[in-house]
Design a protein that fits this description.
Blueprint: H1 2-15, H2 23-53, H3 65-76, H4 85-109, H5 112-115, H6 118-149, H7 151-154, H8 164-179, H9 184-211, H10 220-249, H11 257-268, H12 277-303
Helix pairs in contact: 1-2, 2-3, 2-4, 2-12, 4-6, 6-8, 6-9, 9-10, 10-11, 10-12
């Protein structure tokens, strides 16, 4: 449905002679590509959230990726892997649409399109990533809570939320409008870290492949190689932020990112900040490849050229 929506909207845009540099074109191409990537990688993300949400007092806090996924499949079935997919789609549509729509103007304003400075590209990615995530935080909170919610059933409790709308309204009723932006600092920090490293590395690797290795800027091979390197770097940089963000957002009471970080290190050690790195890489790596590759193909198909 998301893909069909993209086709309808982008053709409407074409019929109105949308310019190739228009923000709307980049927003639609990016948000649609992100939603497609989300559908394929969401089960891995659910496994990651279960692992990162498990603090030391939980009996399964030491379970690895495959043990966690097997437990979910055995106890709750395949559908549990897609708990929270509606708010996840909303989040990706908003966050990734804003992110890539804003990245190029910021990068060009800093002059990185001419001198190809990795630091300037990183700064552009950090700004656009943080801004895009800030717009999508309410959907991110609901996604994380719904993904972690099924654990209550295994522990003899009841699910907190009956669906996406109920989750949104419950969070609002519990903590007001500020509750929908709980964890904004680690969430935006994580997004800034991931997109600073991810977009800067993709942009730079693609430039190297095209300018120094002779590959075409519109080649799928170029997009795949650049996005693969980008996915690994983004996973490594973003994992500690991801752990703290997940735990802060999953709390029903207010806990600062600093408090959560110190508590995590004190009770579980520094290595806990990289809990779930394997599923993070297994999820973010393919997700990054699909997102950026589909984004490039959509841009080429419907606006006539690449947008990096």
């Amino acid at each position: 449905l998301q893909f069909l929506y993209f086709i309808v909207i982008i053709n409407m845009a074409k019929s109105k002679n949308m310019g190739t540099g228009d923000l709307s074109a980049r927003f639609l191409c990016s948000s649609s590509a992100a939603c497609i990537a989300e559908i394929f990688t969401f089960p891995i993300d659910t496994t990651r959230v279960r692992m990162q949400a498990a603090c030391k007092q939980h009996k399964d806090h030491k379970l690895g990726m495959f043990a966690t996924a097997s437990g979910v499949l055995k106890d709750q079935g395949v559908r549990a892997f897609y708990s929270g997919i509606p708010p996840a789609m909303i989040r990706q549509f908003v966050q990734c649409g804003v992110n890539l729509a804003a990245y190029l103007p910021i990068r060009n304003a800093l002059g990185a399109d001419k001198d190809h400075s990795f630091l300037k590209k990183g700064l552009a990615g950090a700004i656009s990533g943080a801004f895009g995530q800030f717009c999508a935080i309410p959907a991110d909170i609901v996604k994380i809570r719904m993904q972690a919610d099924n654990k209550a059933l295994l522990e003899g409790g009841k699910k907190r939320y009956q669906g996406t709308v109920h989750a949104f309204t419950s969070v609002y009723q519990e903590n007001g409008i500020r509750g929908l932006w709980r964890g904004a600092t680690p969430s935006c920090g994580r997004s800034a870290a991931i997109h600073s490293s991810g977009l800067a590395s993709y942009d730079s690797f693609k430039y190297i492949l095209v300018a120094h290795m002779g590959l075409s800027t519109e080649s799928s091979v170029t997009h795949f190689l650049a996005s693969s390197a980008s996915g690994f770097l983004a996973s490594a940089v973003g994992c500690p932020f991801d752990v703290i963000k997940t735990r802060v957002m999953n709390q029903s009471t207010t806990v600062s990112p600093y408090q959560m970080t110190m508590t995590t290190i004190k009770t579980e050690g520094p290595r806990a900040l990289f809990k779930g790195f394997v599923p993070t890489l297994a999820r973010l790596g393919p997700w990054q490849v699909m997102w950026l590759s589909f984004y490039e193909r959509f841009c080429i198909m419907y606006t006539g050229n690449s947008k990096f």
